[in-house]
Amino acid sequence: MAMLSMKRASLSLIMGVLLVSGCLVLGAIKDAQAMGIKQVTSKKGINGWLIRDSMVPIFTLHFAFRGGAALDPVGREGVSEMVSGLLDEGAGPYSSSDFQARLENNSISMRFSAGRDNFSGSLKSLAENRNMAASLLSLALTQPHFDAAPVARIRAQLLSSARRRAVRPSSTARRSFRKLVFGNHPYGRSASGTVESLKKITKQDMAGFVKNRFARDNLVVGAVGNITEDEFARIIDRIFGALPARSTPFSISEAKIKGAGNVVVVDRDIPQSVVVFGHSGIKRNDPDYYAALVMNYALGGGGLTSRLATEIREKRGLAYSVYSRIATYDHGGLFLGRVSTKNDRVAKSIALIRSEWTRMAKSGLGAQELEDSKRYLTGAFFTRLNSSSRIAGLLVGIQLEKFGRDYLAKRNRMIEQVSIKDITRVAKRLMKPSDLTFVIVGRPKGITPKP
Amino acid sequence: MFRGLCLMRGFGISVFLAVYLFAVSGSNAGIFNPESFTLKNGLKVVVIENHRMPVVRQMLFYKVGSADDPSGKSGLAHYLEHLMFKGTRTMAPNEFSKVVARNGGRDNAYTSNDTTAYYQTVAKDRLELVMKMEADRMANLVFDAKEVVPELQVVIEERRSRTDNRPGSQLDEHMAAALYMNHPYRIPIIGWNHELSKLTMKDAIGFYRRHYAPNNAILIITGDVTMATVRPLVDKYYGPIPANPKIIRRVRLAEPPQRAARRVSFESRRVREPQWSREYLAPSRANGKSSHADALEILDVILGSGATSRLYRALVLEQKLALGVGSYYDADMLGPTAFGISARPASGVSLETLEAAIETEIDKLLTHGVSKDELAKAIKRSLAGAVFARDSLRRGASAIGTALTTGQTIESVETWPAKMKAVTTKQILDAARHVFQKSRSVTGLLLPKVRKSSAKSSNKKSSVWDKPVRVFGGNQ
Q1: Subunit contact B55:A378, Cβ cutoff 8 A
Q2: What is the value of ipTM here, to two decimals?
């Protein structure tokens, strides 16, 4: 009955995506940078990355197909989300309940997740069951049924979830912010679907997503386990070999960020307002990415030690959680953050956010802050890699960004090389206090909305 | 308290399984192979080797939690947890976290009903540094009004985020207060607002002096280390801290006999989807008829864990009365724990109908017990869970730390797989009959409060709530 009461908001929230962190300065972790990533090419020509690990007799595999929820048709938001809920609900010779029984009775964990730019999944099993696990995953990807009964059930679950999201303050704030800044761009639409859109999704929509997206040319794979490279190559083909060679090409326009300077209040009768704020950011392949990462860590990425946390939480007790982060997508980027503050103190928190934004834009970072940021970003990355799933997930993340196997060491150097001058330049380029958009969900006092 | 908040297969499964694995297997996987010793000052030290990465995690558990808050001072254990980051005689406020971060590490802490834990994950050559700092704040914490006062506001904001902004959490508070008539688990970890907001520095100092000492703590070091490398550091940094002879075994108020079923219902405009839950008072590994604990863990798997569980099959797949349903049971509590069941009704199904169907399943269980096949499958799943638990750095340390601060031993963690294997269908039936007595339960209903004006059309309601409304407030 341990409802754990954390001292602070979970770091995973703050750090977000796997790739936002860096590598390692510390001697002890030099070995980890090498980490022995093997690249394997299967007979069917599929590449996969493998880290051999014999610590625990389990096999963990992560994968992703390019193209995700951003490709859901207008008005049919949630197609990819529904696919993710239905792949293991009947496939090949197995009905939904047979499939589930096979997974649970053999302790095979199979997950799917629809992101905006990718559709990803994972498989984890005891080593002894890995071939069975691989076969089941293959069926889920190549022969999903989308039978009427499971479709109705999963749709009802997703509808319920969408209704709950609609009244959850944090979801409301995120959704409203996204709509405002992305407008009609696909990133502005719901990834998980709305009450209206989920009702319209058909079996054909889902089958279409599978047909268009799940293909060998569109796939990245990473695994951790005690298997040889040959065995891994065979597993890859067992899972993905039956997929079509080619996916359907797609294009998504670059997002133009709107709503600069807006202050929007979404009225809710709650004691604490949830505020999402931000403006345009950068993409992952931007040459200034690492400098932005280092700058953001000092601004609001670093738990309790960041400037925002110091001013808003530590000095004044205005909030339990406040952070900023760089959100990168394939076709756009945001620089955003969140804070939750009692209604009558929201104005104060917002004023402090504005002033920290301005201060960074004007004067960048001090030498000590720069050093601290780099040391955290290069070090903490590895401490997170403490399970097979984390490591396999990283292998997939690196490949999605089209980096090489030397990424771990390279990334370290890129962060090390960030100078005060870089920060000053990037702060001028990225920090735009007057562009800041605020979406406030609650009943804030002393706020004048600006449309 | 593990509330079944993510009940639905399809989208909630990942969180659900995480909870399941932690509650069922992670807590007692039996394969961590720890080594341990005790310092002269009473500090118990456990080392769990895990050499996958050159990383180490230090976890310091104190045998004190929210259930040890003095009467009228709810939230004190958790408030002190926050203040532990506010500096010592030699460290400035927040310097602890700054030093960890600047050495490429991460740190945090949590408070539960029975335990307060502090932990850092660092590169292995930084172990000495974090050990030195953790030992330092065990004995040398400094309380400064400049830090202590705003931090209370932080905790109150935390309460707003966790509870006051969430109808589900508000109902949870009422359910706990009803399930426990006398035991302090009835009081929320974060505290009641009227008591929390009056906590003082003096309260925190008193609590720190009373509970924070080596003979009331468990130190766990896990990662790329060995006993040979850890022990000298422990001797050096924790060894000199004097024991507190006044530390006594925790004695808490006990539950009186429970004779009447309780029912709480909460309606809110901020609720869209109704939810039904029930909690039965249940024995833990340290309290009540603890011999039932192993069987209850297996029963939890059979009854309500995953898509093949009895409740999911009956209510979601066959009768189509529920969107999701699950059970939860946490044996690792010092006091009386709960066996819980939680469900969301399908559209148009009343909570009463749902409740009746769940009670039918419970009656079936109480009449016929479980089959040998169900038992064999549940044991197999639990044993696999124990293997998966070894995969992460966190699991072993959490499991052993939790066990040692809730009246158990390392051995009881290590022999967990054998205990699961030994569970019989008769033990499950006996345990179920012991626990599933309505007179020892609380039922909680979470309900949407429908606005009169839009009560007729649910679509209309949703448009009112879904669209951002721009209001024009003045300077109030």
Answers
A1: no
A2: 0.91
